[in-house]
Design a protein that fits this description.
With about 375 residues, this protein is mainly alpha-helical. Among the domains are: about 60-105 and about 125-170, no CATH class; about 260-375, no CATH class. Helix content is about 50%, strand content about 0%. Helix 11 packs antiparallel against helix 12, helix 14 (about 280-300) runs parallel beside helix 16 (about 325-340) and helix 14 (about 280-300) packs antiparallel against helix 17. The longest helix has 20 residues, at about 280-300.
């Protein structure tokens, strides 16, 4: 006589009476032929994924989102949501976003009775802290590339002329991006010493666009934030990259006076002994070292990061002499000139740079002329 099985809740049933492989064969029969177990598992997980809840703004069509953005074109809106950012990713929206922050507006003045057309005030005036942070955040955005920045600057120039059409017609010089020293410094933009160069432009690898972008911003007088960011460390690392890649303009830009990167003895040795002894790069390292020594002297700091009379470098020069390399004569004179300038009491950075040019920085010395911006 067979016993009646009793089911107890919470207790698993023994599978000993079932022939082996019954469960697996049942599941295999339920699956379609040729479909793997992993595919069924992935499908089950997909069904359990909860779709994100979209806000009312995210559900708007692109046309409405762009219309709203045009009334207040701040980069905070696209930064708030990837879905909104995708709807605003058009060249027109990019230009609107930059135009709002980078166009310099004249500060309000009391009206004056005059028959002459009003002159726009393009002199420097304090930029509000909130605008400074907004511009810094704008430059850090990934879509602000060298190509878009050039288009944006042209748009800003045209908008400034439209605002002051009577007084500025025919007076605004054309923008020259590759050689900015050939045109006057722009007075129509808020870009200036109060704004920081983004970290994305301070390190390698050094593409042509990144190099030109960095050089143009240094020409506008932009610096970096040494106190509340890691830009200083990034710039020092970027200098090593530029020396290794033999990028003259990147080296000169990072060693510009307002950037305040102080080259090290390793930088000088690396440029001379390991990476081809490029005269332009060595010259700018020596110039920055002389200017850094003057800054330290003004701050009552006796430290000297670079020693032009380093024994290892002079031993390397001796090997150049033995090989008949003409650079040895130039290098010997450049190191001695830098060492002499470090002992002088001259504090003007531009004068120190020009004094070194007179000795070893001319085109006839094999040094490429890279104009720098001075305060």
């Amino acid at each position: 006589m067979d016993l009646t099985p009793i089911r107890i809740r919470g207790v698993r049933h023994r599978s000993g009476n079932k022939p082996p492989g019954v469960d697996q064969s049942a599941r295999s029969a339920a699956r379609r032929k040729g479909r793997s177990l992993q595919a069924d598992h992935a499908a089950a997980q997909t069904k359990s994924v909860i779709k994100p809840h979209l806000s009312t703004l995210e559900q708007l069509p692109p046309e409405i989102t762009q219309l709203i953005f045009s009334f207040n074109p701040t980069h905070n809106l696209p930064s708030a949501s990837p879905r909104i950012a995708s709807k605003l990713s058009t060249e027109r929206m990019f230009l609107l976003c930059g135009l709002e922050s980078l166009l310099k507006h004249s500060p309000p003045k009391l009206p004056e009775v005059s028959e002459e057309p009003p002159q726009p005030d393009t002199d420097d005036f304090p930029i509000p802290n909130n605008l400074v942070e907004e511009i810094n955040s704008l430059l850090r955005l990934r879509w602000v590339t060298w190509t878009r920045f050039q288009a944006l600057m042209r748009k800003i120039r045209d908008a400034f002329i439209d605002l002051h059409e009577e007084s500025q017609s025919g007076m605004m010089a054309a923008l020259v991006f590759d050689t900015p020293s050939e045109s006057p410094k722009p007075t129509f933009t808020t870009l200036g010493p109060d704004i920081s160069i983004p970290e994305k432009l301070l390190h390698g690898p050094w593409s042509t666009d990144k190099t030109r972008f960095l050089y143009y911003l240094t020409w506008l007088g932009l610096g970096i934030d040494w106190e509340s960011s890691t830009s200083g460390e990034v710039a020092c690392s970027g200098l090593e990259d530029a020396i290794r890649e033999k990028n003259r303009i990147a080296v000169a830009s990072l060693l510009a006076e307002q950037i305040k990167v102080q080259p090290t003895q390793d930088n000088l040795r690396s440029a001379i002994m390991q990476h081809g002894c490029d005269q332009t790069i060595v010259f700018h390292i020596l110039s920055a070292s002389v200017r850094a020594r003057a800054r330290n002297r003004r701050a009552n700091n006796s430290s000297q990061a670079v020693n032009p009379l380093d024994a290892s470098i002079w031993s390397w020069i001796k090997r150049l002499d033995d090989a008949g390399d003409k650079r040895s004569k130039w290098l010997r004179g450049a190191l001695r000139a830098a060492s002499d300038l470090m002992t002088q009491s001259i504090s003007n950075a531009r004068r120190l740079h020009e004094d070194l040019i007179d000795v070893c920085g001319r085109s006839s010395d094999g040094v490429e002329q890279i104009p720098l911006q001075w305060d």
